[in-house]
């Protein structure tokens, strides 16, 4: 019993140790920069996966929450000069509250209605960021965002920031992992499979959806804060609709509802465009073909798109080998 | 007062292009219950093809107009044939179709982006800025052409939907696809035709919209997407002519907002109307309330 428990714990610990090893071994600033972006995009992809993959409510306005978080964090830091940890929490709360406010009317809709509504919301947020010049400085963007200070240490170098980003990502991943393995997570999956059946089973469909939307929004907000204090400059051009599509591509490629898949897809879709700079022009085109191809591929259903299919298979085998039931705690 | 009338005319012109685009959304939603994200990009494709035919290939304008309508319709039908039909045949979950149309829209937009470049181009015009004085204020020829052709097209479309066999098949499909199939109607063909007609109307809207602004670029589709969809929902999605009413209301509101509140807010109005409608009366002005059944 004890040995099994230890065995069960070894793989994640090794993986986490390896991840933390990256900022200490890699000295190349450019590689570390990509590393930080992978962490940020993984948070975005995983959080969108909660609402779109696990709960089945496809949203195309995730960049808006990312933007709200980034601006909230940067403004709090610039005007009040408080600790970065408070800024992250403020960003998450700001995005989460707006997530609830927009989620209550929007999540009464489903399918395409919801998608259009979230697209519109994303556009609305971008326009507000662009036009509310007295607060956001409009197209000029926010500059002089302070660097984070943790335990008296100013986070300056790439490797230090990578450690911070990685920690926040792992924390959020842990929260999502626990959500998925809880009663609430199962409620969300039930809603995805059949709303009416879920409702007859006593699940408060609308409330659960809004909560999931708020959690996803808050996490995207935290990711925004991570970006703001890393770039030290943010402008509305970062938070455009195309970016929401990128995040959705990550979720779809990774397998809707399959969290490790989202992380892998976020990594691939960040690293590949960086290594193939010449292909930058074709990036959106490739994303488009990716979305079509994945949908037209074989056996498309929840959790089984592309990476999700292989990933779930490999994942299942690993768990089997470690003496766990198939599908037990599968995210 | 005079400026109010001028704004009203601008609003009606703008609303006409929305109305024509909205019909395509409404038809596809009526039959497949799918929000076709490719549709707003089709609007851009139509506008661009006309630009290519007239400015780059020097084909006479009336001929280019017909070519554009046919070619854009074909693009729409081809899109349906290549992506929607296989998904329908395999009975895939609805999110698959939705994401597929998002993908197609990105692909089309970027193909034009790569081929034509990102810069805004001057659009060919009929009757260079000529205007006619009607009841004391000036109306440009383009505006008259837009409103008249919209009215004619809508009349033709209403006739087509209500009086022809294909139109009847479309209405039947919108009510019950399976029963229609059992009556010996080829649903595949009807869906193809729906995409063809919707895309052709969007092409007309695209040409006219770009003519009144005298410019075209790759992002016009994305810009008009939310507005036309808002028109569709406002009028009642699935009601073919609901989108027309919605389009006119959104067009007028947008112009009034730009004139009296500030042009920065014009793009927000459509979204606010959309949210209000969805909140207060999700079935739209002309729509019937649908009860979800198991």
Describe what you observe in this structure.
The complex is a heterodimer of chains A (331) and B (294). Chain A is mostly helical. Chain A has a single domain, classed as Orthogonal Bundle (ABC transporter involved in vitamin B12 uptake, BtuC), CATH 1.10.3470. Helices cover 74% and strands 1% of the residues of chain A. In chain A, strands 1-2 form a two-stranded antiparallel ribbon. In chain A, strand 1 and strand 2 form a beta hairpin. Chain A is globular, with a radius of gyration of 20 Å. The relative contact order of chain A is 0.17. Chain B has one domain. Chain B contains 11 helices and 4 strands; from the N terminus they run ααααβββααααβααα. The mean pLDDT of chain B is 84. The chains are: A mainly alpha (331), B mainly alpha (294). Chains A and B meet through helix 5, helix 11 and helix 13 of A and helix 3, helix 4, helix 9 and helix 11 of B.
Which labels suit this protein?
heterodimer; A: 331 residues; mainly alpha; ABC transporter involved in vitamin B12 uptake, BtuC; two-stranded antiparallel ribbon; 14 helices; 1% strand; globular; disordered C terminus; B: 294 residues; two-stranded antiparallel sheet; 11 helices
Q: Hey, roughly how much beta strand do the residues of chain A contain?
A: under 5%
Which residue ranges of chain A are poorly predicted, with pLDDT under 50 across at least 5 consecutive positions? 325-331
Largest interface: A-B, 43 and 48 residues
Q: What number of domains of chain B? A: 1
Terminal-residue CA separation of chain B: 54 Å
Order of SSEs of chain A, N→C?
A: HHHHHHEEHHHHHHHH
Secondary-structure element order of chain B, as H and E?
HHHHEEEHHHHEHHH
């Amino acid at each position: 019993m004890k040995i099994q428990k230890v065995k069960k714990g070894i793989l994640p610990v090794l993986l986490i140790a390896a991840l933390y090893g990256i900022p200490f071994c890699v000295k190349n600033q450019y590689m570390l920069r990509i590393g930080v972006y992978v962490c940020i995009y993984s948070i975005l992809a995983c959080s969108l996966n909660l609402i779109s993959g696990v709960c089945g409510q496809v949203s195309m306005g995730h960049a808006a929450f990312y933007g709200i978080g980034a601006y909230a964090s940067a403004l709090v830091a610039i005007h009040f000069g408080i600790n970065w940890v408070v800024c992250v929490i403020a960003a998450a709360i700001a995005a989460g509250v707006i997530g609830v406010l927009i989620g209550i009317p929007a999540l009464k809709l489903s399918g395409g209605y919801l998608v259009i509504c979230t697209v519109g919301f994303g556009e609305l947020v971008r326009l507000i960021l662009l036009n509310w010049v007295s607060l956001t400085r409009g197209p000029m963007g926010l500059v002089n965002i302070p660097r984070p200070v943790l335990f008296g240490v100013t986070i300056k170098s790439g490797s230090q920031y990578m450690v911070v980003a990685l920690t926040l990502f792992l924390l959020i991943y842990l929260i999502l992992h626990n959500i998925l393995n809880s009663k609430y997570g199962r409620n969300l999956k039930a809603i995805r499979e059949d709303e009416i059946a879920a409702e007859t089973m006593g699940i408060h469909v609308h409330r659960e959806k809004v909560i999931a939307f708020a959690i996803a929004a808050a996490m995207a907000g935290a990711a925004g804060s991570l970006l703001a204090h890393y770039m030290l400059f943010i402008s509305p051009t970062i938070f455009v609709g195309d970016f929401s599509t990128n995040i959705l591509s990550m979720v779809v490629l990774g397998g809707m509802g399959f969290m490790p898949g989202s992380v892998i897809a976020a990594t691939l879709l960040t690293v590949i465009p960086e290594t193939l700079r010449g292909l930058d022009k074709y990036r959106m085109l490739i994303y488009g073909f990716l979305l079509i191809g994945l949908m037209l591929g074989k056996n498309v259903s929840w959790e089984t798109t592309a990476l999700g299919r292989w990933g779930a298979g490999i994942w299942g085998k690993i768990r089997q080998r470690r003496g766990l039931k198939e599908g037990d705690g599968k995210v | 007062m005079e400026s109010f009338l001028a704004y009203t005319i601008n609003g009606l012109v703008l609303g006409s292009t929305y109305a024509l685009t909205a019909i395509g959304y409404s038809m596809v939603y009526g039959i497949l219950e799918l929000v076709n994200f490719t549709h707003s990009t089709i609007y851009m494709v139509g506008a661009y093809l006309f630009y290519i035919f007239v400015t780059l290939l020097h084909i006479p304008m009336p001929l280019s107009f017909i070519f554009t309508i046919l070619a854009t319709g074909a693009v729409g039908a081809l899109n349906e044939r290549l992506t929607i039909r296989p998904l329908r045949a395999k009975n895939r979950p609805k999110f698959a179709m939705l994401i597929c149309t998002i993908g197609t829209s990105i692909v089309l937009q970027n193909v034009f982006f790569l081929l034509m470049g990102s810069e805004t181009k001057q659009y060919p015009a009929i009757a260079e800025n000529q205007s006619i004085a009607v009841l004391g204020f000036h109306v440009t020829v383009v505006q008259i052409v837009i409103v008249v052709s919209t009215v004619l097209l809508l009349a033709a479309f209403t006739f087509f939907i209500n009086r022809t066999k294909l139109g009847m098949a479309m209405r039947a499909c919108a009510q019950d696809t399976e029963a229609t199939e059992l009556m010996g109607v080829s649903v595949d063909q009807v869906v193809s035709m729906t995409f063809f007609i919707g895309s052709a109307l969007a092409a007309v809207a695209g040409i006219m919209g770009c003519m009144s602004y005298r410019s075209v670029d790759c992002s016009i589709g994305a810009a008009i997407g939310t507005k036309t969809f808002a028109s569709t929902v406002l009028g009642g999605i699935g009601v073919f002519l609901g989108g027309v009413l919605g389009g006119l209301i959104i067009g007028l509101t947008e112009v009034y907002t730009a004139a009296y509140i500030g042009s920065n807010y014009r793009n927000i109005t459509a979204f606010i109307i959309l949210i209000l409608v969805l909140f207060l009366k999700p079935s739209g002005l002309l729509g019937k309330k649908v009860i979800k059944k198991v």
